[in-house]
Structures are given as C-alpha cells and as structure tokens.
Amino acid sequence: MANIAEAAGLSRPALYQYFRDKTDIFSSAFLALFEGLVEQALSALHQPGSTVEQLDGFLQRYEGDLWERMATSPYAEEIVRSKNAEVVTAVTAVVARLSDGLTSYLEPRSSNVQARAEYVELLRWSPKGFTYDRPSVETFRRRLTALARVVAASLDVSS
Hints:
Layout: H1 2-8, H2 12-18, H3 22-44, H4 51-72, H5 76-81, H6 85-106, H7 113-130, H8 137-158
C-alpha cells in the first residue's frame, strides 16, 4: 500500500480513505478499465460505416483491446485467477448493459427476436474460443474481424 500511495501522490492514510486494501484497489481499477472498454465498444456500433465496420469496431474495442492489454501485462494470470464477489456482480451488470446495447443495435437489422438473441450470444462468446490457442494480438484481432464479417453477412441475408 505504501508503494501504491507513493505512486498516486497520496499518504497511506489518505489512500485508506478510498480503498480498504490492495484487492479493493485492483477491483476498482479493473472495473474502471472494463467499463471503459464496454463504453468504447457500444460507441463503435454508432460510428459511421457499414455493419461489418461497426461490428468489427465493437469486437475490437471490447474483446481485442482487452486481449491486447492482457497479452502485454505481466499480471495477466493473476488477474484471470482473481475472484472478488463485488467485482463479479459489477462486471455482470456491465456485461448486461453491453448485451442490451448490442441487442438494440441489431433490432433494426434483424426482425427475428430469436435470431437477434443468437447473434448477441455468438458475438459475446465466440471470441472466448478464439483465445484457446493463445494467439498473438494480431491473430486474435483478425479472428474478430472475420466474425464481424460472418455476422454482418448473415444479417444481410436474413433481412
């Protein structure tokens, strides 16, 4: 805590006014990062461009940027292993907001409610499988772009 306080330009007592311990600091930092990625991903859905470009932007901001940060972090394994009930609850709410935003984006592009739900599921969970072989960031991002193309093509066909 002394090192963290020093790096933040605070005294240890001041740091303890905001955080209980290192786990609390980690949880807050992770949640802030995660919320930022979700905001950027949802924003990408409303940028000018084709459906492919918008979906690719969504996937790159949400999944690609997170993968890149994890790939370059010496603490990636520690982050993945950490379990904090408060963070899990907060992340669940943020992911629900992400899913709702993606569902809203897909609504005018697919009139079939079940198909929209399947697209959301595909876009949310497929990238997890793309990491199975621990690809480079470049390979992972290329896989995300391919997923965006497939979903966009499917939307165009089903419209």
